[in-house]
Design a protein that fits this description.
Radius of gyration: 19 Å
Number of helices: 9
CATH class of the largest domain: Alpha Beta
CATH architecture of the largest domain: 3-Layer(aba) Sandwich
GO biological process, one term: methylation
Mean pLDDT: 86
Protein name: Class I SAM-dependent methyltransferase
Structural class: alpha/beta
Strand content: 15-25%
CATH superfamily of the largest domain: Vaccinia Virus protein VP39
GO molecular function, one term: methyltransferase activity
Keywords: Membrane, Methyltransferase, S-adenosyl-L-methionine, Transferase, Transmembrane, Transmembrane helix
Strand order of the largest sheet: 3-2-1-4-5-11-6
Distance between the termini: 42 Å
CATH topology of the largest domain: Rossmann fold
Low-confidence stretches: 1-9
Oligomer: single chain
Helix content: 25-40%
Number of domains: 2
Number of strands: 11
InterPro entries: Methyltransf_25, SAM-dependent_MTases_sf
Length: 258
């Protein structure tokens, strides 16, 4: 099970996270409290400690710092995938940034005839995912492993709440992305090599717009999902500049067949 915070701790975290960005005579004090609080979390909470260590270890390959996840977090998108793959004999699906495996478990319920692969850079998360959800048709790999590199191509790749940096969302004064667009684009290029022609890319809760990437010439909006949704999160352009405080996003793209 993913780590569940107590209500007092959760409220404290939210308050400190907001206060540390507010200008004023006590800003340094709140920064100190925030650092102390995170030090406490590092020694007490195994999931947080693993997250910090993995981010130090893998550096530029690390995208999403949070391990938070939920079952059936995107029911509308999962239902679209269910309908699309209903006639496939054995679709092969990838959850990129699978965390502790709840997304994979949900996909297994929606598309029980699928072969499922979950990858993550956080080894602690992978251990939880394998223990809870591993099976003959569901496997989990480290995102930098040879196992993933040799795992073949997929009919769909899910990148849900992966390409984002917490500072972009939590710091209202930030005007430049804490993570560069180039890193986002490089990872997309690597994933593109794993997606079959005609395959689907699901992408949501992202700091950037996929349509600005160099890959857009190889993709089109999926014909069954051409209604954008509003996301109350900042948007950064390919020059890493903040251009909006909320997004109007398309979430499903189809790779054009050669």
């Amino acid at each position: 099970m993913w780590y569940k915070r107590s209500i007092p701790e959760s409220d404290l975290k939210v308050r400190l996270r907001k206060k540390r960005w507010q200008s004023g005579p006590f800003q340094v004090y709140f920064w100190f409290l925030w650092s102390f609080f995170n030090g406490y979390r590092f020694f007490i909470q195994r999931p947080y400690r693993a997250r910090v260590i993995q981010s130090w270890r893998f550096g530029r390959h690390y995208h999403q710092f949070s391990t938070y996840t939920l079952p059936n977090r995107y029911p509308d998108l999962f239902a679209l995938a269910q309908a699309h793959f209903a006639q496939y004999a054995t679709p092969k699906l990838l959850s990129f940034g699978c965390s502790t495996g709840e997304e994979i478990s949900t996909l297994a319920r929606y598309i029980p005839h699928a072969t499922l692969v979950g990858v993550d850079i956080n080894q602690w998360c992978l251990r939880q995912a394998k223990r809870k959800f591993g099976s003959n048709s569901t496997v989990f790999y480290h995102s930098l492993s040879d196992d993933f590199r040799h795992s073949g191509e997929f009919d769909a790749i899910f990148c849900m709440a992966v390409f984002q940096h917490p500072e972009n969302r939590h710091n209202p004064n930030r005007t430049e992305s804490a993570a560069p667009f180039l890193r986002f684009e490089e990872q997309l290029l690597a994933l593109d090599q794993k997606l079959k022609p005609g395959g689907l890319l699901f992408i949501d809760h992202c700091d950037f717009d996929f349509r600005e990437s160099c890959l857009m010439t190889r993709y089109r909006l999926a014909p069954f999902d051409r209604i954008p949704v509003v996301r109350q999160r900042p948007l950064f352009n390919k020059y890493n500049q903040k251009i909006a405080d909320r997004q109007l996003v398309f979430r499903v793209y189809e790779k054009i067949e050669n």
